[in-house]
Amino acid sequence: MSNLCLILVFGLSLVVQIQNGVAFDYGAALTKSLLFYEAQRSGKLPSNQRVKWRGDSALNDGRDAGINLVGGYYDAGDNVKFGLPMAYTVTMLAWSVVEFGPQLGARHELSNALAAIKWGTDYLIKAHHSPEELYGEVGEGGSDHSCWQRPEDMTTPRTVYKIDDQHPGSDLAGETAAALAAASVAFRHSNPSYSNQLINHAKQLFEFARNHRGQYQNSIPAAGQFYSSSGYEDELLWAAAWLRQATNDNRYLEFIKSANSGGARQMFSWDDKYAGAHVLIAKGILEGKIPRNGNVEQMKKEAEEFVCNCIQRGNNNMRKTNGGVLWFLEWSNLQYVTSASFLITTYADILAKTKTSLQCPKGTVGPRDLLTFAKSQVDYILGANPKKMSYMVGFGSNYPKQVHHRGASIVSIKQSPKAVGCQEGFTEWFHKNADNPNVLEGAIVGGPDQSDQYRDARDNFQQAEPATANNAPIVGVLARLAS
């Protein structure tokens, strides 16, 4: 008899998996997935901060340039604030609330999700210093990576970088516009005045992105080594799709109708937004909110092609490992798994709501098929994999203990207030073959390789580093599965 018992009651959206006698608690995973963002906070921490091993940090960001850039999120295991992945993170957290707000509320996590979004949007508003000026990075990857220090101890330069009308970055401005527009929808009922503030910034940023075109790494070369953008037309489409949803203004619909559809995509990520935009547009079509025309119908077709290929029912299926997880890239593969799973889960609910099905090349697919596949990917992350390891830190008992993360790998400043120097961090903590002193609850690491193998070591940054972009898409999926 199989040791895998699968209980699926889709009418109630109750999904419980028992693997080797252990049930995955999606609600607990959801709580942890949002807790991770509190560990990534930069700036002055609030009184209700739940991650107690963190302290205030980077309280002078922007001061040298005469601007207040305190706040926002550290990107991953380092202490740099990169604008492009941060804005994408905010967009996906906001989409989780827009799409799965009731489910988040049912698990008492809606307020935590909104707090995670607002920590990002408050910073993005500061970074949007004037209509055609946006700060896109604080700190510099090279100098930051040459040190191993807690954020609270940073001695590396906090250089600020921006785009403006003379130094454009349509991808950065477009993604930030999308983030603020999506967040405006998320806050529409709970905080209408803040929602209006967000939409005003989003509109300005979209015009800036559209009127001054260029890739942001040409204006901020320091970002290019770490988060180089492959283009900006996807961010313009993505921003227009969110602005249409936030405003119902036909100008954005007209932009969508004339935009490059981008073709069928092979991934959805902080760099490539086409698949996300396609799904958002397809949702509008199926709900009768976007009139059908040739170009938007093509985008719907491309959304469905992406979903069919992910679930192995298409003509150009995504690769999977023998263990069953989608395979995209050696570096931080799970980032692309969580984002694909979000789109699949969202499409499942779109089909259910509109009472339609998806015609894939390999057969008709319904909402249950999509949700089952997305669930398989989440279950892999949580421990249903050949290593029987949870790739969400702090979930279960077998999870990565030597996560590549400066703050988590050095004793808390609350416990040991003595500053840790730039190189001292390497000698005393990075190279120490011991578990991190602080558990980075909820962080999703880069994950295993194509052979489902994972090496739990701090120097294994390809696999062992978490990032805010890894977690953001799984928040909505977990909310859906936990409902």
From TrEMBL:
<dbReference type="InterPro" id="IPR008928">
    <property type="entry name" value="6-hairpin_glycosidase_sf"/>
</dbReference>
<dbReference type="InterPro" id="IPR001701">
    <property type="entry name" value="Glyco_hydro_9"/>
</dbReference>
<protein>
    <recommendedName>
        <fullName>Endoglucanase</fullName>
        <ecNumber>3.2.1.4</ecNumber>
    </recommendedName>
</protein>
<feature type="domain" description="Glycoside hydrolase family 9">
    <location>
        <begin position="26"/>
        <end position="478"/>
    </location>
</feature>
<dbReference type="GO" id="GO:0008810">
    <property type="term" value="F:cellulase activity"/>
</dbReference>
<keyword id="KW-0119">Carbohydrate metabolism</keyword>
<dbReference type="Pfam" id="PF00759">
    <property type="entry name" value="Glyco_hydro_9"/>
</dbReference>
<dbReference type="InterPro" id="IPR033126">
    <property type="entry name" value="Glyco_hydro_9_Asp/Glu_AS"/>
</dbReference>
<keyword id="KW-0732">Signal</keyword>
<keyword id="KW-0326">Glycosidase</keyword>
<dbReference type="InterPro" id="IPR012341">
    <property type="entry name" value="6hp_glycosidase-like_sf"/>
</dbReference>
<dbReference type="InterPro" id="IPR018221">
    <property type="entry name" value="Glyco_hydro_9_His_AS"/>
</dbReference>
<keyword id="KW-0136">Cellulose degradation</keyword>
<dbReference type="GO" id="GO:0030245">
    <property type="term" value="P:cellulose catabolic process"/>
</dbReference>
<keyword id="KW-0624">Polysaccharide degradation</keyword>
<feature type="active site">
    <location>
        <position position="404"/>
    </location>
</feature>
<comment type="similarity">
    <text>Belongs to the glycosyl hydrolase 9 (cellulase E) family.</text>
</comment>
<keyword id="KW-0378">Hydrolase</keyword>
<feature type="active site">
    <location>
        <position position="456"/>
    </location>
</feature>
<feature type="active site">
    <location>
        <position position="465"/>
    </location>
</feature>
<feature type="signal peptide">
    <location>
        <begin position="1"/>
        <end position="23"/>
    </location>
</feature>
